[in-house]
Amino acid sequence: MAKEKVHINLVFIGHVDHGKSTTVGRLLFDSGNIDEQTMRKLTQRAEELGKKGFEFAFIMDNLKEEQERGVTIDLAHKRFDTPKYYFTIIDAPGHRDFIKNMITGASQADAGVVCVAANDGVMAQTKEHIFLSKTLGVSQLIIAVNKMDMVNYDEAKFKAVVEDVSKLLKSVGYKPDEIAFIPMASLKGDNVAKKSENMPWYTGKILLEQLDELKEPEKPTELPLRLPIQDVYNITGIGVVPVGRVETGVMKVGQKVIFVPGREGKGVIGELKSIEMHHEQVQTAEPGDNVGFNVRGIGKKDIARGDVLGTTDNVPTVATEFTAQIVVLNHPSVITIGYTPVFHIHTAQVACQVTEIVKKLNPATGEVLEEKPDFIKNGDAAIVKVKPVQPLVIETQKDIPQMSRFAVRDSGQTVAAGMCIDLIKKTLE
Asked: Domains in the chain, start-ordered, CATH in brackets?
């Protein structure tokens, strides 16, 4: 096999109905990654369902339920090639109740395309997604100002959206002058994979070209192996096949591996028999690779989503307590000691109790504003101590940053986000 192009995980995010799926579909079709016949079938299906105009979205929204509702529910993955890179596109849902999938998506992404509709501008989820992208470590963004056809391709409208989004980007720590803003109309195909005639005032790159301007993600191959399990399948003739994305380190056939916490919280050990990526057997996998693999000596009941694979000579850290730096995004009242929301860390979802609010920080500068405050509220940054209700794999920001980030959710919304800065290690018997 020839040397692969560099791989980038790209997430499409933004408010519901701002055209994420349609943008992805248009990109895949116009760049020749989807054939005419498939497209015809989807167009027909869209018309049958009374969803004319949704045909491009259907490329990603292939779950039947989504086609009927015209809504993106699950994370969809598609391979997509540009002259320079090959991308795995993650189409992340914009709907509120689907934001936990969005979190999984963003935490796997190297770069993001944020769709903002020109006729709506910045909406609640635009803010939430951009903030989460920053906290979850998506370092590069492209802003697609979509639905320009709805505002008659007006340059002034485009500029107004650029200004609002720039303020938002700046407030969470992105540098707007390093980010491309592209005026587009995905349904019509303007500036997605083909230059638009309708916006002669725009002289920048179209989306397809801009993707090749993304910087190559650094691969943390020198760090210890960490692969959070996303799903576990039982495949006839092969056996148990866990799937997930390598976060750090290098995975090699023949390695002695351990899954922690594992069913009993003691870790489950086995030998790595095979690795498969994009339906091909490979000998090794690196950070960013989405793989399925088979391990000798592992039963279906031994491991589950949220467990983390490492090597036996460098076991992933199971924490009984940890200290975190968080930012409160969206809490209806205040957070006090005893609060026990669900923490989403890599692929794990575990309830954790706040046992101490150590200090309140200035979210912009990080300086200490108050020691041991009684509570924290929206907009506050803080250092807190946290106790998971069951064993949980997390690493510190300084050791393995990719495994330190999390989002905090409660009653259907993202309350806070942050990273682990210190922990108390559980000893595995």
From this structure: 6-211 (3.40.50.300), 227-311 (2.40.30.10), 318-425 (2.40.30.10)
